[in-house]
């Protein structure tokens, strides 16, 4: 790969938008690192950040071939060979990971190759590896077809979750990550509906771990050469929607040693490099933290870690540029992160249904809280989000 000279500025290309991208843009931009944003929609809050150097529209970056052609053309036309690429969603991770060797001719690609990344992308592989490593997971069944599902439907303890092994395709088509079913008839009907969108053998039936979203936890890290060099663990108190969330709306940093042990085991087993979030839910029936999934990229609330003293995007960027990283030491606990608009809507619904009081909501915001979009030194994205709320509501 043609690299810029040492006295030239290396930048970053962020693929995707919304809160994940904005956090990366601000992290690197505040360090005077140029950042290009690539997204498939022109109306996005990241392009309004003062730390976004340039914005580029790529309508179908979900297609790996389209993204490769776009990025290689961008590298040549903009003279940005050697910049670091940050994919921020599963579609972009898939495109970058499956075309890593081609893209590495022009860019630094921290995303691992597909033989590694697929272990996070496909939950059948995820759970098999977790069980091999002794990491608890929810009880999950893998029906081969409709007849197999019908045969086991009467033996299942309801309610359960019907979910895809590969989330991205189903989510893109339906806007849902999973479906809660309460009896055999619902299970069979929803399975048939899901089979129109994804392959039947990619559909899983999983037990629902009791408890509200306040029992959701994440182990987040920068992992390299078999070691976790930077970590942050958090408890995710609220999500949208609350019962089967597409994204966290309120999180607080906590120290949970079991999660670090489990997460590190999994990352070591798959030979991972880079940033990741390994998600768990604490089962009140046995007190075990059970692994739900892994995100092989930055996650929605990753800027909380910066508030805790762990700047993940900058750590990854510097490792790509210099080839060395020092441990950050212990992250700070008790810091909070909130995406105000979505969290307010979720909390209002909880209050309306008497699952939360106004006092509890207000008390949860006490203390040092990082707002996902608003920043004093970069206020325009929050203004843009406010004005775009009707559009964002309809599209998300």
Structure notes:
- With 396 residues, this protein is of the alpha/beta class.
- The chain contains 15 helices and 15 strands.
- The strands form 3 sheets. A 7-stranded mixed sheet has the order 13-12-9-10-11-14-15, sandwiched between helices. A 4-stranded parallel sheet has the order 3-2-1-4. Strands 5-8-6-7 form a 4-stranded antiparallel sheet, with helices on one face.
- Strand 9 (216-224) and strand 10 (227-240) form a beta hairpin.
- Helix 2 (64-78) crosses helix 3 (90-98), helix 5 (114-121) packs across helix 6 and helix 7 (146-153) runs antiparallel to helix 9 (184-195).
- The protein is globular, with a radius of gyration of 21 Å.
- Mean pLDDT is 92; it is low at 1-7.
How do the helices and strands line up, and which of them pair or pack?
Blueprint: E1 12-15, H1 18-29, E2 35-39, E3 54-57, H2 64-78, E4 84-87, H3 90-98, H4 100-103, H5 114-121, H6 123-132, E5 140-141, H7 146-153, E6 160-164, H8 167-174, E7 179-181, H9 184-195, E8 203-207, E9 216-224, E10 227-240, E11 247-253, H10 257-270, E12 274-282, E13 289-295, H11 303-307, H12 312-322, E14 336-338, H13 340-352, H14 358-364, E15 369-371, H15 380-395
Parallel strand pairs: 1-2, 1-4, 2-3, 14-15
Antiparallel strand pairs: 5-8, 6-7, 6-8, 9-10, 9-12, 10-11, 11-14, 12-13
Helix pairs in contact: 2-3, 3-5, 5-6, 7-9
């Amino acid at each position: 790969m043609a690299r810029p000279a040492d006295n030239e500025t290396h930048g970053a290309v962020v693929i995707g938008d919304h809160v994940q991208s904005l956090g990366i843009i601000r992290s690197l931009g505040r360090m005077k690192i140029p950042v290009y944003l690539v997204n498939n929609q022109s109306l996005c809050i990241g392009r309004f950040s003062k730390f976004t150097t340039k914005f580029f529209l790529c309508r179908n970056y979900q297609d790996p071939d389209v993204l490769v052609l776009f990025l290689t053309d961008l590298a040549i036309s903009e003279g940005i060979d050697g910049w670091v690429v940050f994919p921020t969603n599963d579609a972009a991770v898939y495109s970058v990971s499956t075309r890593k060797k081609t893209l590495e001719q022009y860019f630094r690609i921290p995303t691992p190759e597909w033989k590694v990344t697929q272990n996070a992308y496909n939950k059948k592989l995820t759970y098999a590896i977790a069980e091999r490593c002794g990491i608890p997971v929810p009880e999950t069944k893998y029906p081969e077809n409709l007849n197999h599902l019908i045969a086991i439907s009467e033996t299942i303890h309801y309610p359960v979750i019907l979910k895809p092994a590969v989330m991205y395709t189903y989510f893109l088509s339906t806007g849902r990550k999973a479906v809660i079913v309460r009896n055999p008839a619902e299970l069979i009907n929803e399975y048939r509906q899901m089979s129109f969108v994804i392959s039947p053998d990619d559909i899983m039936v999983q037990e629902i771990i009791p408890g509200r979203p306040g029992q959701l936890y994440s182990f987040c890290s920068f992992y390299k050469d078999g070691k976790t060099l930077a970590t942050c663990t958090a408890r995710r108190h609220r999500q949208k929607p609350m019962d089967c969330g597409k994204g966290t709306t309120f999180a607080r940093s906590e120290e949970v040693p079991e999660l670090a042990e489990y997460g590190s085991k999994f990352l070591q087993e798959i030979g991972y490099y880079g940033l990741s979030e390994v998600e768990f839910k604490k089962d009140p029936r046995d007190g075990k933290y059970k692994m739900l999934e892994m995100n092989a990229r930055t996650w929605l609330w990753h800027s909380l870690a910066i508030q805790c003293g762990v700047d993940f995007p900058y750590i990854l960027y510097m490792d790509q540029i210099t080839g060395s990283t020092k441990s950050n030491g212990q992250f700070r606990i008790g810091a909070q992160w909130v995406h105000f608009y979505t969290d307010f809507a979720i909390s209002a619904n909880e209050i309306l249904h008497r699952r939360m009081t106004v006092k509890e909501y207000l008390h949860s915001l006490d203390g040092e809280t990082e707002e996902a979009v608003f920043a004093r030194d970069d206020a325009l994205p929050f203004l843009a989000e406010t004005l775009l709320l009707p559009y964002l509501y309809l599209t998300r």
